[in-house]
Amino acid sequence: MPRFALLIDYDGTPFAGWQAQAEQPSVQGAIEAALARLDPGFAQGARIAAAGRTDVGVHATGQVAHADLARDWDPFRLSEALNWHLKPAPVAILAAARVDEDFHARFSAQERRYSFRLVARRAPVTHDRGRVWQVLSPLDLEAMRAGAAHLLGRHDFTTFRSTMCQSKSPVKTLDAIRIEEFPIPRGREYRFHLRARSFLHNQVRSIVGTLERVGAGAWHPDRVAEALAARDRAACGPVCPPQGLYLTGVGYPADPFA
Known about the structure:
Blueprint: E1 3-10, H1 27-36, H2 40-43, E2 49-50, E3 59-68, H3 75-86, E4 91-99, E5 111-120, E6 133-135, H4 141-149, E7 153-156, E8 171-184, E9 187-196, H5 203-215, H6 222-230, E10 245-251
Parallel strand pairs: 3-10, 5-6
Antiparallel strand pairs: 1-3, 1-4, 2-3, 5-9, 5-10, 7-8, 8-9
Domain Pseudouridine synthase I TruA alpha/beta: 9-107, 148-253
Organism: Paracoccus yeei
Protein name: tRNA pseudouridine synthase A
């Protein structure tokens, strides 16, 4: 059976997360329902596998999944057919690619990239409602960058890990964390970009929520290092809401969509 990689973009607002759930709308379920219109295996319950299982309300601009199909589709025609059957769900197949049978969307991945959007202004957001986290006051960009620097490298991230996390180890390597600031009408937008081979459950939201406390002046940047060293969930700052989080890319030894 030929295997295809799918590059996926979605608005997570109406879904109970990526993973298929009984009687709950999911991104995985929407794509599998579209595949069931094209492939007998999915009509009988075959599943796709994804690089990451995003939570309820989390978005993606670069999710990757793979599917084994009965027919050897032209990749462009496959993406077009899937997009037709996905309507009107806010899910789009950006590209499809034929891959080797040993390619696995999750286990072949060498890095994952997330971005988080935070807007600071008094007036409510309108066009980006459900797609950003909003706070009322501007943040100190340099203080947040100083706090973030403590998190780079290989650490025990127990402090920034959900109590429901199923990962075997809290030790992860954070390869990059970059924070940008942009002017918007009557406010500022801050974008946090994080890159690692893999992340713990709620790790990105825990980090951003903690750095927001630094930017707001409630935490000194060095307190981030103290929280990390504590290896205690109680030492973490508040976990920020999911709607500002985006899975923006997944890295493989060779880009399947190149």
